[in-house]
Amino acid sequence: MKTPLYNSLRDYGNKVQYRMHMPGHKSLEELYKTTGFHKEMLNLDLTEIEGVDSLFHPRSSLLEAQEIAANLYGAKESIFLVNGASIGIMASIMAVVGEGEELIIPRNAHRSVFNALLLAGVKPIYIMPEIDFDTGVAMGINPLEIERALTENPKAKGVLIAHPNFYGFCSDIEAIAKIVHKYDKVLIVDEACGSHFKFHKELPISGIEVGADLIVHGTHKNLPALTQSGILHIYSNRVDEKKLKHYLMMLQSSSPSYILLASLEIALKIVEEKGIDLFNSLFENISLLKESFKKIKGVKCLDNNLIGKYSIAGYDFSKVVINFQQLNLRGYEVEAILRDRYGIQCELSDPANILITFTIADSREVFSKVLAAIEEIATEAEIINDKGCLTEGPWHLPQLVYTPKEAENKGWQEIDISHAKGRVSAETLSSFPPGMPIIRAGERVDERVLELLKAYRDVKNIKVIIE
Known about the structure:
InterPro entries: Orn/Lys/Arg_deCO2ase_major_dom, Orn_Lys_Arg_decarboxylase-I, Prn/Lys/Arg_de-COase_C, PyrdxlP-dep_Trfase, PyrdxlP-dep_Trfase_major
Family: Belongs to the Orn/Lys/Arg decarboxylase class-I family.
Pfam families: OKR_DC_1 (PF01276), OKR_DC_1_C (PF03711)
Domain Orn/Lys/Arg decarboxylases family 1 pyridoxal-P attachment site: 3-308
GO molecular function, one term: transaminase activity
Mean pLDDT: 91
């Protein structure tokens, strides 16, 4: 029998020497040498049996491990996850908001948010992030927009905010928490990319530090835990914990991986014992790299120089966003060149930028290789006069006719886009950049939607609800 998947994973490891993307361990065995974890995986692959505790009813070793995590982060309770941060986000939403009730969310929220809205029958109240139309990146959420949404929608059960967004930019989470709690609402923080914030003074503050009610971490993204490990932190008494744990049990596997659970515990042990030195080294290496980038013509970094603009209050220094708009190169092209010529795979690319994620697993050699590659690519390129990444602003919120669940259960047909005005979309169409829907299922197609689809998507047909 052939093993195409296994072969592709091995081939990737042979071709890509420098992994500038999650998971945070970067396959560096050195991180685990004091525990031997990487050599014991088959022996640790157990099920829920006597002696190793139960994920959904922890009473011994797992309970103790979660209590240690809660103490480390300063949470009231911390619950380990084996289906990623996504499942923590979904369970949080379903525990807080019921059928027909409202939740205030960013327009560019993670797909897990929309999955939860669909399953629970929740009505979304959207808030728009500010957009840097020059680089095409969706930035922060203005706290005043949160207050406006709460004032206009007093029945909303709570607010969900991403902290940081995928590019590493953070809204003013402290101000947002104060506003949400002033209205006695629940604040859910999608902190999937921020499980490391606690471990260095130059990193943004965590949602836990500002008293958010539920905070979700994807510990594999920036810490040396295996993919799909995560933590859901409970900080307040505003949420029904029994209901929350009920949904966690419903949504997660009934055969949780103890390898993932153990990797999570080991990752926390590493950063608790060595985190200061490891993150200091990471910060120093990234600072030196960014200083070197300043000497390369046509290349610039989007980082803490944006604090105070676009409602940005903080920036994760481990996320290095490199902009190439002054060169005759697109971000997609740079990503391909880095991978094919240099064996460097970045986290993502868009028309103007690439995103490189550094973690405590990256050595000085990795930084040197990245710098040398970017220098060579930029030297071979030409300087151009950039006109900006996005030209069709401002962005738009179409009329919501049906909740995601209602739209899912409607019949639909596909029609020519020229006949779509006034119809209700049965599908979601997005533009990247800025990584945000132009229209979502259940929203009415209007003239502005058609303009944006024409500007950013080559859409000839659209699925619409039969009414």
